[in-house]
Amino acid sequence: MSDRIFPPRALVLDPAGTATADALTARLKSNGYGVDTRTVFSEPTGPIDAFAYEPGLLDGIPTGNAAEQLLTAVKRLTPFLRAAEEGGSRIVVIASRDGLGWPSRPDLAAQSGALISAARSLALQLGRTGTTVNVVAALPPEGSPLRSAGRPENTHLYEPEALTPEPVTAQDIAETAAFFLDPRSGYITGQVLNCCGGASLLSSLSV
């Protein structure tokens, strides 16, 4: 693996304008990345070491078809990804734990499931090029509109609760995403990591 040009460069695509994307941008900057955060995709001006996509599922405000937007963005970004001999690039997608199923949000569950499938397919497509693609599937973080809404409409169920003493935060999700975007995580691809405080251990109807 050859030395990269430093500082490394990251693109955070944040069409919904979320606190999670803000937290990830701050985390990457603290790691020395030059970060470009955008709400609309446009081609970068040079090679990209890391790309994060946060479509707003955790706030309940996805902007269009999240999976289709991801595939389109990566297709346009591919010429700017690092070659395998340069260590490749890292892609992370922020999805929702709703992909496991949730009675009051079938639309978000469907979008999250499609987004995870698209990300795993991209991992297969790009693996030989040295680029990794992984997913962070999280609960709605503290302060998000979904978390603040509390009890889902027309059900006896509450918003999924973590097994940990505190709810998941945007910073927790950002730290998990930063792990996947680190150059040292280059042997991990096509994986879904639940940042949910253990809620995913329980079934959709028991959390």
Secondary-structure map:
Blueprint (H helix, E strand, L loop, with lengths): L8 E5 L5 H12 L3 E5 L11 E4 L12 H12 L12 E7 L9 H21 L5 E7 L6 H5 L20 H12 L10 E4 L12
Parallel strand pairs: 1-2, 1-3, 3-4, 4-5, 5-6
Helix pairs in contact: 1-5, 2-3
Give a verbal description of the structure:
- With 207 residues, the protein is α/β, with parallel strands linked by helices.
- It has helices spanning 19-30, 66-77, 106-126, 145-149, 170-181, and strands spanning 9-13, 34-38, 50-53, 90-96, 132-138, 192-195.
- It has five helices and six strands, in the order βαββαβαβααβ.
- It has a six-stranded parallel beta sheet with strand order 2-1-3-4-5-6, with helices on both faces.
- α1 packs across α5 and α2 (66-77) packs parallel to α3.
- The N and C termini lie far apart (44 Å).
